[in-house]
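Supplementary material to the annual report.
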Amino acid sequence: MLMKSFFKYLVLIAMAGLMACQRNAHFNVASPDDKIVVTLGEENGRVYYEVFHDSKPVVLQSFLGFTLKATDNLEDNFYLKDVSYAEVNKTWEQQWGEERFVDEVYNEMKVLVEEKSGDKRQFYITFRLFNDGFGFRYEFPEQANLKKFTIMDEQTEFVLNGNHTAWSIPYDIEAYEGLYRQMPISELDTVCSPLTMKTADGLYLAIHEANLTDYAAMNLYPTGDSTLKVYLTPWSSGEKVFMKAPHQTPWRTMIIADNAGDLLLSRLMLNLNEPCQLEDTSWIKPGRYIGIWWGMHMKHYTWHEGPQHGATTENTMRYMDFAAEHGFSGVLVEGWNKGWDDWQHFSFTEPYADFDLKAVTEYGATKGVKLIGHHETGGNVNNYEAQLDDAFNLYHQHGVSVVKTGYVGTLLNGNEMHSGQYAVRHYRHVIEKAARSQIMIDNHEPVMPTGLQRTFPNLMTQEGVRGQEWNAWAGDGGNPPNHTTIIPFTRGLAGPMDFTPGIFNFDNPEMPQTRVQTTLAKQLALSVILYSPLQMAADMIENYQNNPEPFEFIKACPVNWAQTVVPEAEIGEYVTIARKDRDSDNWFVGSITNEHQRELVLPLDFLEPNTRYMAQVFKDAEETDYLSNPYELIEEELEVNAHTVLKIGLAPGGGTAIILTKIE
Ligand code: NOJ
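Predicted assembly:
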């Protein structure tokens, strides 16, 4: 805590408060670099907070509290009873991630709030201020008069200093698989977080949450030109959260960044999760794999049994041969188990007759290739939970260490939303059970991620995004070129995305209305741009066999990084990311653009000084265009160093991917 600035702001805010109206006690805390200052105060029994950045208001007086069921609200009869401060300055290591070491540096202020009369119920509001933003949460200690209670509404507000431009999707769109819309805050409907905004002054803000544990996901809706209020996803019965003290809400977070690229470098969400709870993590390994998957989405194979069944023993072994030959660690096989005829009554232990689980896993073991398991539940959670132990045991016995889970459908069990407290409890149950069987999870149709992978690093990656599969069958033609220039700054802020880049054949004769709307070079670049510690090279192996040169990039691109930098970015327009491999001195660069062509001017100043590197560049040709000529790609090599400035043309809908190998 920097006491000098603390007192400066205390005095300033106290004076402003006295002039405006009668405000009672308030407390302040500043970020370690002094740039962000938060005030927590009380006015007429209501608790509020305010946030300043560089002495300018970012969040104006915003009230806090709860509407409860069948008892007095936690709302307008409170005072600030006590305050304590703490400073934390440490670095922790990520087993996998966008960088190896994460700085966790913040100042904390914890304020005890108590009812002025009556039951004298209490809760804490804890703020943690980092240099790149802040988080706060409500904590309910054990107490006589607040044991079990039901939250009907969380009243948390974010009164912003302007009607900022926001990128959002509706909170209830199925599985968060929507195209992000750009509009002013005042025009939003109820949207999920992360909610990313740009202010008129060019500041970038992103509101989200961290450590969603036994609570409902946070959504936001506007109540005026610049005010957002929290809307918790309800249970089917209308209640929002069933609470039992001691417990706490997730952290409500805001990243504050001077440029779009810095949003991607904030580790605030991870820092607000608990350290790893698993004792042995030696079995958790990131990896790149292939899958019997795109063939189903392109209607080349079926999930269910029949003449075109994809998940046969023979086909799986063929994919395993290809994986071994090209250095992939696994093969995902969907449609191996009974139940694909009605998508509701899946068995997670009974394979179809033409799939021999024992034979394929033993065959894979001889080649160093694992089967990646698949549990599509169709949203029937009751059916899944009843089989969970047997299902994980079976896979564990056969050496399967990654399972892709899925919850297709609008409601779980036909009644609960994917982001309500019921779903949050279920997903956590699966992660913990999986860890006990040494299984890593790739979760599709999830609740929006909130950084739990710090605590449970077997939660590798999740969907919750309109991914590549939409380019196979979407009625609207597929993902438009700007989609991947937006999602890193929205959904991507919530953690790894299982988008599955790497499609090499864009057209499907069966579905002529839809296609991949990128160039081939952009598909390569997406492997760097869209971070996921488990990444599937998504195409059918035949399409890789037919395109060996660009496939070299996919094979070489790591999934675990020592360091990440973002040389340039603008939401919805372009983004360039450079990442240093965790296991070598090599760097990988991805750069993508929307539907407009542009020239990438990239100073390689992130490279080690006085060192020579060989740059292998995969780029669009002059005539390349995502609509008329998407496949034309040039591969070239040149020697570079930290002083080199690369200039590379990106085609409309295009991109470039670069490997920078240190020359010893
Ligand atoms: C939707 C998932 O996103 C996709 O990857 C999977 O193939 C299907 N569900 C079937 O489980």
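The pocket of 1-deoxynojirimycin is lined by residues 293, 334, 376, 406, 408, 444, 463, 469 (CB under 6 Å).
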